[in-house]
């Protein structure tokens, strides 16, 4: 393997930190699942506009290729190799009371976590047989959920185009053909082994074998973050009784993309900010202060429609789950205050 020709167009953290020295040190290494440096960086090499540009194949990738991953992780999360991750799944510790403004400006609230099964490689390095086995383990566990979490698993293979399109349009299902996932090896054997589970009201959903083996999602219309968070925690705890998730003391929950490590949590709202979004500098000053990220309404790499934005926590590692949601709540309150000032 040759050192990639990182031209000026490359913006990713991978391109920034894969110096010639680091490359020489890592280029011949291979994890026990045969994942190599070439596999790790392929998505970032193929997609010049990647922000991160690296995916792990397994938990071991993060230690074997630490000279690259540690730098990316520190840059994205502000978390150093000597820091320890802490988890807090106690929803009573969240301080997110619902008020009139939240319900007025927030269209919907969604919180998801990524999870992967211990003793399996990540989706980037998994074989078809292993992926099918993951689908079986997870869908069987889900099919025995009770009460509010009770639902049905719908495999992607065999789903009608109308059904999948309407689930995507309504923000419930992942899109096909993402070029970052494609070049990371995450779309191999598509659509086999992939699917979505949801309860009747579509407030509890699980994606199987997308970027991570599980994406556990709680969502509903309006701005009640406490209710959405509490439902998610109940679901995570139920699933933990039936399977073991890949976790390590230092990095928390293991995910294929280093941005999701730790809590693997993205807590987001779709929020109407038509005035504030006219002044992007002001908008970004507030989101930066509260460690928030701005996305469009159709998810990552999409645009805003009608002044509605997806606002979510950026930090996921070195902060607890409660803190992730608290970042979002506090920042959203500040965004609403700024929008109200502009209305006057
Ligand atoms: P992820 O949440 O896994 O990082 P995306 O940014 O691609 O991935 O979003 C996945 C889907 O979830 C998209 O259809 C997006 O519109 C939807 N979504 C995200 N946040 C919300 C929200 N607060 N309300 C409704 N839909 C949401
Ligand atoms: N690989 C893409 C990039 O580097 C996405 C990174 C973060 N998003 C994600 N879905 N993991 O820009």
Features:
344 residues, alpha+beta, Transferase Creatine Kinase, Chain A, domain 1, Creatine Kinase, Chain A, domain 2, 2 domains, eight-stranded antiparallel β-sheet, two-stranded antiparallel sheet, 10 strands, binds adenosine-5'-diphosphate, binds arginine
Please write out the topology:
Blueprint: H1 13-17, H2 20-26, H3 37-46, H4 59-64, H5 66-77, H6 100-105, E1 106-115, H7 128-142, E2 151-155, H8 161-169, H9 179-183, E3 195-199, E4 204-208, E5 214-221, H10 225-240, E6 247-248, E7 252-253, E8 265-272, H11 280-289, E9 292-295, E10 308-313, H12 321-343
Antiparallel strand pairs: 1-5, 1-8, 2-3, 3-4, 4-5, 6-7, 8-10, 9-10
The structure holds adenosine-5'-diphosphate and arginine (ARG).
Structural class: alpha+beta
* Average predicted confidence as pLDDT: 97
What's the domain count? 2
Topology-level CATH name of the largest domain:
Creatine Kinase, Chain A, domain 2
Task: Characterise this structure.
This protein is an alpha+beta fold and 344 residues long. It has 12 helices and 10 strands. The chain has an 8-stranded antiparallel beta sheet. A two-stranded antiparallel ribbon has the order 6-7. A hairpin with a 3-residue loop joins strand 6 and strand 7. The structure holds adenosine-5'-diphosphate and arginine (ARG). Adenosine-5'-diphosphate (ADP) binds at residues 108-110, 112, 171, 215, 219, 266, 268-270, 295, 297-300, 310.
């Amino acid at each position: 393997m040759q050192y990639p020709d990182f031209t000026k167009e490359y913006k990713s953290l991978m391109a920034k930190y894969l110096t010639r020295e680091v490359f020489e040190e890592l280029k011949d290494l291979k994890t026990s699942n045969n994942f190599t440096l070439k596999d790790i960086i392929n998505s970032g090499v193929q997609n010049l506009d990647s922000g991160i540009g690296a995916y792990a194949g397994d938990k071991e990738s993060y230690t074997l290729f630490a000279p690259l991953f540690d730098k990316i992780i520190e840059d994205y999360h502000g978390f150093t190799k000597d820091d320890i991750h802490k988890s807090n799944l106690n929803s009573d510790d969240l301080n997110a009371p619902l008020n009139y403004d939240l319900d007025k400006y927030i269209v919907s609230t969604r919180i998801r976590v990524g999870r992967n099964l211990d003793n399996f490689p990540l989706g980037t390095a998994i074989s078809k047989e292993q992926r099918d086995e993951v689908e079986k383990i997870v869908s069987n566990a889900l099919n025995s959920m009770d009460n509010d979490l009770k639902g049905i698993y719908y495999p992607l293979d065999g789903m009608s185009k109308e059904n999948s399109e309407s689930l995507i349009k309504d923000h419930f299902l992942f899109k096909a053909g993402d070029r970052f996932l494609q070049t990371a090896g995450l779309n191999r054997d598509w659509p086999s082994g992939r699917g979505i589970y949801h309860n009747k009201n579509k407030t509890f959903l699980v994606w199987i074998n997308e970027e991570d083996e599980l994406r556990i999602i709680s969502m509903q219309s309006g701005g009640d973050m406490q209710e959405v968070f509490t439902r998610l925690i109940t679901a995570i705890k139920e699933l933990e009784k039936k399977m073991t998730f890949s976790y390590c003391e230092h990095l928390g929950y293991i995910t294929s993309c280093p941005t999701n490590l730790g809590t693997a949590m993205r807590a987001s709202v779709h929020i109407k900010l038509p005035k504030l979004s006219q002044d992007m500098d002001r908008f970004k000053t507030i989101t930066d202060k509260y460690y928030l990220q701005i996305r469009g309404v159709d998810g990552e790499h999409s645009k805003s429609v009608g002044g509605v934005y997806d606002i979510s926590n950026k930090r996921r590692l070195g902060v607890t789950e409660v803190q992730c949601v608290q970042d979002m709540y506090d920042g959203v309150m500040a965004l609403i205050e700024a929008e109200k000032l502009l209305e006057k």
